[in-house]
Amino acid sequence: MKSSPPAGRAESSGPVASWWLLGPGLLWMGLLFVVPLSLVLVISFAERGTYGGIVWSLSLTNYLDLLHPLYAHILGQSILLAAVTTMLCLIMGFPLAYYIARAAPGRQGMLLLLVMIPFWTNFLVRTYAWMFILRTEGLLNTLLLKLGVIAAPIELLYSNTAVVIGLVYGYLPFMVLPLFVALEQVDRTLVEAAWDLYATRWVILRRIIVPLARPGIMAGCLLVFIPSLGAFLTPDLLGGARSMMVGNLIQHEFLVARDWPLGAAISCLLMLFVMGMMRWLLHAAKPVSRQEDAS
Amino acid sequence: MRINGIRFFLCLLLLLLWGTVACQRTSGDAGQKTLHYFTWSDYVGPELLAEFERRHGVHVVVDTFSSNEELLAKLQGGATGYDVTVPSDFMAAIMIQQGLVAELDSTKLPNAATLEDHLQHLPFDPTQRFAIPYLWGTVGIGYDSAVVATPPDSWAVLWDVRYTGKISMLNDQREVFGAVLRSMGASMNTKDPALIEAAKARLLVQKPLVKAYASEHYDQLLASGDVVLAHGWGGPVARAMIDRPSIRYVVPKEGGTLWADCLVVLKSSPRKELAMQFINYLLEPQVAARTAERLLFASANKAARPFVPSRILDNPAIYPPLDLLPRLEWMTDVGAALRMYDRAWTELKMH
């Protein structure tokens, strides 16, 4: 986007070379993305055999079954939890990313490393760690009791609050990293110019920094929202499986109920929903950015 | 361009290598004497495997699965190369139906002659043509006798508001519905929509009391005191007893699930002879007794009882008292009714 690639060299290699270079990627995407996804789509129109196999047919039974308000309810609750997670990640991630982006270049690497360190440990292990922290007799309750902040232990584990804590914890780096990239590229002279023109901090943030960081905000929100929507480990472990997110429902259909066709149909609807939402988001974002460009 | 071309060829080479290595793995094993055992995680003592390897001069490779459904999915997905596996009773029935299991030769399995009486004629395989019971037990209630003062004898205790937030249920729709259906005096394998609906209503009433639906870590919940009543398999409850001696186990008077994990030889196994030797070895009285002691599940071989320490033998969470048997029920596949259970379970989770 910012700097167009040296056009001459790219063209001299010719289209044949670019196909060669695209080959491995295309092969990879074809074999491991398009083929499995097509299978999911095909299976979603099949029917479940008595013993859990797939009976090939072309029926809409699975989709008609999904019209039950129950499934809309599950999707609604998942969207709510994922949206809350995304908002919290944005609120917590933005100042952090801004701080890292404005830090001295030498410290930036160190700070980014700190953001990424949790990835060195398996997500499951980290989720179990949260179970120990949030338990009735866990770390947090013991600490708060000792400090006299609370009189009786608070029941945090096995609630939607615990699920959101786990999701925010797990996906915060996915918000911070794209935000950092976007914020680092914000031209500091624009901020200085705004100061010179007597803009307040709030105005600078709202009229300059946020609009310029918009691609990073969008990318971060999508990177947090989409996996949160499909999460199934966190609701099971930290939510005590007391409620279901759509990810749990899909996992349940595939692995427990052995109802692949219904599970595939839910997956297809979820993908459709996410794609629709992304289109709408990109569409909604466009006119604003043009306006900003013009002003 | 040149560098990228080299990179591409390196990638291609890697892909080809990967392919040949994968091929070699499967073809190479067929030549050597290697047995592939597909089992639950931590379901066999390494020293017992080592002994079998020594005795027969073979190599045993263990792969693990975490649920019956995962096992079936992997086998249906075309996983080959496994010789012996251990599905639970209802899954063994499905695997036999699906033709995934090879017929056994009883002359190769002398140790299977001394199975517990009630395990000799499993409903889905009455003559032991396909499956040999290995470990067995019940589903009941683990409770902390220091808190639950009067020993519970009915599933109704799981609806007692005094224990609000101190109850865990298995995260398993058939087991949870099974417990409620038994408490209503019905079969846990009912296909009657009205009964399933009534069971769901009772579970919805119970839900505010339930701290968590957990199938994996309820032994920790019991041991840490986070819950004082846990619906679950006996083995993990017995494990919780080690950390918290006040834990007890009961199968309610209305009855509960009787389960048995069964050893089977897969039809796709290229080493059926060795596979049967392995099954016979696992059932050997001393080996079976050591397995029961390690895993805290009862061995299906009656001849193992004399070798099992009395603290294991007398623990009802591990060795169910035999007078319970008339009240226990095998779980069977409910076929098309599963979608009703499924819908009811999902509704339970959404309230």
The proportion of residues forming helix of chain B, as a percent range, comes to 40-55%
- Sum up the overall morphology of chain A in one term: globular
Mean pLDDT of chain A: 88
Q: Give the second-level CATH assignment, the architecture of chain A.
A: Orthogonal Bundle
**In angstroms, what separates the terminal alpha carbons of chain B?**
60 Å
CATH class designation of chain A: Mainly Alpha
Oligomer: heterodimer
Largest β sheet strand count, sense and barrel closure of chain B: 11 strands, mixed
CATH topology of the largest domain in chain B: D-Maltodextrin-Binding Protein, domain 2
Number of domains of chain B: 2
Largest sheet of chain A: 2 strands, antiparallel
Supply the number of helical segments of chain B: 12
Write the CATH homologous superfamily of chain A. Answer: MetI-like
What does this 3D model show about the protein?
Chain A has 295 residues and is an all-alpha fold. Chain A has a single domain, classed as MetI-like (MetI-like fold). Chain A is 75% helix and 1% strand. Chain A has helices at residues 7-43, 61-65, 69-102, 105-116, 123-134, 139-147, 160-184, 188-196, 201-212, 214-229, 233-237, 246-256, 260-294; strands at 47-48, 54-55. Chain A has a two-stranded antiparallel sheet with strand order 1-2. In chain A, α8 packs antiparallel against α9 (201-212) and α12 (246-256) packs antiparallel against α13 (260-294). The two termini of chain A are 20 Å apart. By secondary structure, chain B is an alpha/beta fold. Chain B has two domains: 2-136 and 259-322, Periplasmic binding protein-like II (D-Maltodextrin-Binding Protein, domain 2), CATH 3.40.190.10; 137-257 and 327-350, Periplasmic binding protein-like II (D-Maltodextrin-Binding Protein, domain 2). In chain B, 40% of the residues lie in helices and 17% in strands. Chain B contains twelve helices and eleven strands. In chain B, α2 links the parallel β1 and β2. The radius of gyration of chain B is 23 Å and the shape is globular. Chains A and B meet through α1, α3 and α12 of A and α1, α3, β6 and α12 of B.
